[in-house]
Amino acid sequence: MQIQLGIVMDPISAITIKKDSSFAMLLAAQAKGWPLFYMEQSDLFLAQGIASATVKPLQVFEDAQNWYALGEARTIALSELDVILMRKDPP
User: Fold this and answer.
1) Domains contained in the chain, CATH given
2) Could you list the pLDDT tens digit for every one of the 91 residues in the chain?
3) Rounded CA gap, 38 and 60, in Å?
4) Are the C-beta atoms of 17 and 64 separated by less than 8 Å?
5) Is 63 left (phi over 0), alpha (psi -120 to 50) or beta?
6) How many CA atoms lie within 13 A of 63 on its CB side?
């Protein structure tokens, strides 16, 4: 079964991958073959009573210089995702 995983987080461009637990979770999910979708808090909205977001497909890499790649943005209903991690300013 392929899980569609979304993550709401601080800008991925500013993380330190060696100590970021969100990044570690993304690597593990990607290793399982789960499609990843990236969003920031400002990408979330309500449209005609439907929780929605502008998401970007995400790939992550264990490379300190090039640790992520984002695809083209698209708008979806959050119900299309199986899991949503809310990792805004995690401890």
Assistant:
1) 5-87 (3.40.50.20)
2) 799 999 999 999 999 999 999 999 999 999 999 999 999 999 999 999 999 999 999 999 999 999 999 999 999 999 999 999 999 876 6
3) 11
4) yes
5) beta
6) 8
